[in-house]
Specification:
The protein is α+β, with helices and mostly antiparallel strands. It contains 4 helices and 8 strands. It is 27% helix and 45% strand. Strand 6 and strand 7 form a beta hairpin. Helix 3 packs antiparallel against helix 4. The chain is flat, with a radius of gyration of 20 Å. InterPro entries: ACT-like_dom_sf, ACT_dom, GcvR, UPF0237/GcvR_regulator.
Length: 176
């Protein structure tokens, strides 16, 4: 039987981080499945999902724990299978002048509707015409198949107006 682990990591950004992590996984018969990783402010951060045969799981956990000696900060959680009803995926794209609270307001509106934020990527830069701070975000959300999408779009439009940002909400076609 397979077990699934979700692993989060932070280390100094240097060559070989992914190689050491992937070696520990492969050496213990693990399979690297999903991951998101990035360089942020001199650090390398990531989260990944690994499947491993049940009998090899403890060996993998021990091998990962040994990476702490090389400066890795890891958290390992066993993943639980969750049954979900019919879902649809939406992509939110936001752009506007940066200011505190943008992510919080969007997250609050989604949480109030019990919407799961599956992916979030944000960026910070400056507008080419004025040099003002510019904030961008792209978020993938899962909503119940019977959710009132127009009501959600109306609420996001209200938040966009309050924050002075643009928010686009588009349906993502499901794979067949």
């Amino acid at each position: 039987m397979q077990q699934h682990l979700v692993i989060s990591l932070i280390s100094d950004d240097k060559p070989g981080v992914v190689e050491k992590l992937s070696a520990a996984i492969a050496d213990n018969r693990g399979n690297w499945e999903d991951s998101r990783m990035a360089h942020l402010a001199g650090k390398f951060a990531g989260i990944l999902r690994v499947s491993v045969p049940s009998e090899a799981c403890q060996g993998l956990k021990d091998a990962l724990a040994a990476l702490a000696d090389e400066g890795f900060k890891l958290q390992i959680e066993e993943a639980l299978a969750v049954a979900a009803g019919p879902q649809q995926t939406l992509r939110l794209k936001l752009v506007g002048n940066d200011r505190p609270g943008i992510v919080h307001e969007i997250a609050r509106a989604l949480a109030a509707r019990r919407i799961n934020m599956e992916q979030l990527e944000t960026g910070y830069g400056s507008t080419p015409w004025s040099g003002e701070p510019l904030f961008t975000a792209e978020c993938m959300i899962s909503v119940a198949g019977d959710m009132d999408l127009e009501g959600l779009r109306d609420e996001l439009d209200e938040i966009a107006d309050e924050l002075g940002v643009d928010i686009d909400c588009e349906e993502v076609p499901t794979a067949v």
